[in-house]
Amino acid sequence: MFQPSPWRADFPAIAALQRQHQTYLDSAATTQKPQALLDALNHYYGHGAANVHRAQHLPGALATQAFETSRDKVAAWLNAADARQVIFTHGATSALNLLAYGLEHGFNEGDEIAISALEHHANLLPWQQLARRRNLRLVILPLDEHGCIDLNQALQLIGPRTRLLAVSQLSNVLGTWQPLPALLAHARAQGALTVVDGAQGVVHGRHDVQQLGCDFYVFSSHKLYGPEGVGVLYGRQHALQQLLHWQFGGEMVQLADYHSASFRPAPLGFEAGTPPIAGVIGLGATLDYLASLDASAVERHEASLHQHLLRGLADRDGVRILGTPQTALASFVVDGVHNADIAHLLTEQGIAVRAGHHCAMPLLQGLGLDGAIRVSLALYNDSDDVQRFFDALDQGLEMLR
Questions:
Q1: Which member of 97, 141, 236, 313 lies 3.0 to 4.6 Å from 116 by CB, making a disulfide possible if both were Cys?
Q2: Global pTM exceeds 0.90
């Protein structure tokens, strides 16, 4: 039965890709963009670009107003208590590195940082390198058979030496929501700071950071139907006050002479230089678009497509799904067939999926794999997209076998 997407027409690139006989199923890597975003970028560049926070002229005032309005929109999207808790960065990776350097002063030799075994490299390598710089212990929280952090073992591993817990909200490989409430509450009880990588999770449903209770929440714009080059770092007020400045230059400085300087507090103190102005304004337009949609209808649509995907994969001989995916994506391997060979044949048939280690090499190595195929869905996909994938997969496997 054909399941259309009522929002497909809002994304011009989908029609363009269709004309090129391409089916886009790689939205966990980056999403296509709505017309509302394209209009906002065109308006900003077409009506007078200007730098923000530092000019008295009209173009500068208008750009600053639009930029700060986007900060308000992000705060509202996350239900942050104050827009000043929202820092714009150049991506989720940039935000996590900001945290790793900005919090470094609070660690002493022998302290522990806890992360999970499924982390994206962006939420592994900054903490790994911090541990190396400060002679800390990096504690890896193991997974259960479903691809979730094993809560019983994690609660034993997060102890009084734990100074920071950094975990993903939703796995970019396994598609599993992680047991954040229990993990975050236990880490807080140990006196640890908590960081949630929401790069995948923020795309699916609305998440209330006050209710979540983390100290920091990070996501990237480009996975949330927004522009590339923009990241968001939310921080609770007491947590932001612990951050030391890590990049220096224009915008973030209060007073400076040749031998000393003082710096602004968050957010501007952590937005050194010219920020990604157009991208931030574009993210605000994207959030307006997303807020206009029926969230329940989007959730039902994505859940139905996801079940179609999982059923079809499970019905095919030799296909093994990794973990127990809960949302929007599925990664799989095929017995006796290399993932790169499958990806090549899918690509030749116009199916855009992701193959390889998905920026999570330790996770794949732990599963005894050198890679996997990942299919990821978005609100603009329909059941025909999934069926085209299955047809191409069947044809590819027939050739390979």
A1: 141
A2: yes
